[in-house]
Each structure stands twice: as C-alpha cells, then as structure tokens.
Amino acid sequence: MSEQNNPRRAFIAAAGAGVAGLGFTAIAPGLHLMAVAQAADATTNSPAARKAGEAASSAVRWGLLVDATKCAPGCTKCVEACHTENGITEKMPDARQNSQWIRKIELVDRRNGRKTELPMMCQHCANPPCVDVCPTGASMKRADGIVLVDRHSCIGCRYCMMACPYKARSFVHAPLTEQNPEVPRGKGCVESCTLCAHRVDKGQNPACVEKCPEGAMIFGDLMDPNSAISKRIASVPTTQVRSDLRLDVGVRYQGI
Amino acid sequence: MRNWLFLAVVMAFLAQFAWAGDQANSRTPKPVIEIANPGKCVAPPEEMRRNHMEMLKHQRDRTLRQGIRGEPVTLNGCIDCHASKKTGSVLGAHESGKGGNFCESCHAYAAVKLDCFECHQPKAKFKAAGVMPGVKP
Fold first, then answer.
1. Minimal Cα–Cα distance from B134 to chain A, Å?
2. Contact residues, chain B, for A87 at CB < 8 Å
3. Would you say residue A45 lies in a domain?
4. Which residues, at least 6 apart from B93, have a Cβ–Cβ distance to it below 8 Å?
5. Do B128 and A76 make contact, defined as CB atoms within 8 angstroms?
6. A224: contact with B, CB 8 A cutoff
7. In chain B, whose CA is at the least distance from the CA of A52?
8. Are the Cβ atoms of A186 and B70 closer than 8 angstroms?
9. What is the number of structural domains in chain A?
10. How far is A164 from chain B (nearest CA, A)?
11. Which residue, among A12, A15, A65, A56, has the nearest Cα to A38 in the 3D structure?
C-alpha cells in the first residue's frame, strides 16, 4: 500500500487541516491532536518554512505536478533557473558529461505527429532504486520524500546512475569552483535534482516552479488533501512515468 | 607539606617562562591566524581548535539526512565570519604574504588536507551564476 493511501494518515491529515487556524484539534476532552506542522500555506501556495532545529517530517511528502499541455515548445526557463540556483556552470569537452539535473524532452506520437514537451528530472520515488543499490548508503531518501545524495559518503561508483530508470543522475567529472554556498557539489560524486531542498526548507518553491513562465508546474504536499497539488491530482487524470515499475514517484505529469 | 608547596610554586614559575618562550622566542614558525570578529564565535577558541571538525561532522549529518536547518554550527556560518576581507575566501594566501587565510593557515601548517572545499564554496556571500542550457563548449 502506498503511503498516500494509508487511511490512518488521511485521517490525521484531515483532522489537522480541519482546524488549520487553531493549529490543533481536540479528539477528546484534554487530548489534542497537533495539526501537520509543515502543511502548505493555502494563501501563498508555497510550502511553510520549517522551524530551526526541526527535522523533516514523514507527515509531509513533497511532490511536483507538471502540466505538459502548458509546457511551451522550445522554452528552457526551468533548466536555466535550475542551473542558476544550483550553480551548474561546468562545460565539459564532451557535452554528454555535463551535469543534468533537469532536461526538456519531446514526445512525438508517430501516428499523427503530435508533439508534447516536458521537463524530466529525478522523480523522487517512494521506493527509489538508487537507494536500493547504493553500496555506501550515500543515496538516501529524506523523511519528507526528497531523494538526495550524501556526498560525504558517495564514492562515485555510479551504480545509482545505472539503476535509475529516468536517467536522472549525473556524475561530476571535473573540479568545481562556482558552487552556490547552499548547494555544495564537487568532483567524483553523483548528483541529481534535490527538489531545491534548501529552498523548500525555507518555505520557497523549487527554482524551476518559480521561474516557469506558463505556470505549468505545481509544487506541494502530496499527503495534504487540501494542497493545490493534491486537489489537482484528485480532479484531473495524471500520470506517473513508468508506473509499471511501481516506484510510486513524487513527480507527476498531466496531459501525456 | 611545606616542601611540596614550594615545589609547586617553583614549577608554576618555570612553566610561565616556558609558555612565554614558546610564544615569542621559539625558532619554530607558528601559523598566522587572523580572527576578524573576536569573541563572536559559537565556542571559545580552545574548544574550536580541537573540536570544530567533530561539530561540523555531526551538524552536516543532521542537516542533510534529517533536514534540520538553523543549527548554531554551520560551515557557511564559519565562512561568513572568517572569510578574508580582501579576497572574501577562507582559502588562499593571506594579504600580509605570511601564511594563508583562516582555514588554510592552520591546515597548511599542520599538513591536514582540507576536503570540505572540494565541494563547499569557500567564498562568503558567493552568488552562483549558472550557465545557459544547450551551450556547446
């Protein structure tokens, strides 16, 4: 059973959301149930910032919904935003060795020539194959569903790159000097989309979501039935890419 | 009892000389450490010198693996406070020409490899620029 379908979690989330203004709800006299602390702020549609010293909670699962029908052909604003935010500056002699956290891909229906463009990145699986195969435990999933690489223990073996069905991970081949202070990255380690964990923890949306001129991407909590992303997923047909692998991905697509 | 007391006083007296000589007249060069904001650190210098690596190691695991932000000890906090005013970095040569900037001065002196900055940005308030996608080298 997937985490989102757990009826107990749904009850807790619903109970919390019912009195979001109060912060807690009474389930019996003198007994209170705390609201989900990290639920999205309904007014600004951006995640609530986590307090200093508070760990990421499994009561939240961050997800992304991409509306491929809105994604403009030839637009690479999300890729540019990602590169600026995460300090991806290197240009290798062989362009295939460049880091690629997010890329635009084009789908063509061969029968009628209909083209669809969409951004593809780490899908932040609930059951990530990259974490299964990592020999050092460097590839890891945070409690809130964000899949990360702990570069302190990554040995650069690249098993995770082979295990990932989405080709989401890259290997850094050359020494780097232009890192964003909040996004350390360096030679000899594997890396991939972090869902801008450093921004999400501050209560901001990921850079690609913020910079999309079409508003084609929604970021939010998949566990919270009142978040914009959950409401959209509940109302329109959405797709998990390679759903046959049962990885229960956090990045969903609409219109593909 | 009186003899013991006398011996203790003599030893304290000698130790003072040894300490002073160690500081000023030693033939061994000492690292030049410039502290830009004295007294503002998260712990006294003696503790920082011995334990900064342990503090940062535990903090990095909590922040990365558990997602805990706003810890009192962070590498970016160290860099923001200790970066050279001239070059903005904790690495590289010091402007006086003697030794290196804050991190490098001691690490070069003690010949301890500084792995942090293989991945972390050594410059304070550095603004990452990024590159346009699809640019061919």
1. 9
2. 121, 128-130
3. no
4. B99, B100, B101
5. no
6. no
7. B70
8. no
9. 1
10. 21
11. A56
We report the CATH number of the domain holding residue A142 as 3.30.70.20
A53: left (phi over 0), alpha (psi -120 to 50) or beta: left
A151 inside 8 A of chain B by CB: yes
Q: Whole-structure pTM over 0.80, yes or no? A: no
B24-61: burial string, b at 16+ Cβ within 10 Å, e else: eeeeeeeeebbeeeeeebeeeeeeeeeebeebbeebbe
Question: Is residue A32 a part of any domain in this protein?
Answer: no
Query: Are B67 and A186 an interchain contact pair (Cβ–Cβ within 8 Å)?
Result: no
Q: B8 to chain A nearest CA, in Å?
A: 48
A86 touching B, CB under 8 A? yes
Check if the beta carbon of residue A237 is closer than 8 Å to that of residue A254: yes
B78, HSE (Cβ side, Cα atoms, 13 Å):
22
Whether residue A38 is contained in a domain is answered as: no
Which chain B positions have a beta carbon within 8 Å of A178's beta carbon?
Answer: 128-129
- B32 token code pair: 């030049």
Among residues B75, B59, B71, B86, the alpha carbon closest in space to that of B119 is found at B75
Contact A194, A183 (CB under 8 A): yes
> Measured between beta carbons, which residues in chain A are less than 8 angstroms from residue B67?
50, 55-56, 142-144, 146, 197, 201
pLDDT in tens, chain A (256 residues): 444 455 555 554 444 444 444 444 555 555 555 444 444 444 456 778 888 888 999 999 999 999 999 999 999 999 999 999 999 988 889 988 999 999 999 999 999 999 999 999 999 999 999 999 999 999 999 999 999 999 999 999 999 999 999 999 999 999 999 999 999 999 999 999 999 999 999 999 999 999 999 999 999 999 999 999 999 999 999 999 999 999 999 999 999 8
Please report, as a single letter, which amino acid is at residue A224.
Answer: D
C-alpha pair distances (Å), B64 with each of A189, B19, B29: 15, 42, 39
Domain range for A100? 56-254
**In a 3-state reduction of DSSP, which class is residue B72?**
coil
Query: What's the gap in Å between the CA of B55 and the closest CA on chain A?
Result: 15
- Check CB contact under 8 Å for A179 and B71: no
Count CA atoms within 13 Å of residue A99 on its CB side: 30
Task: Dig out the tokens for A2 from the structure.
Answer: 């997937």
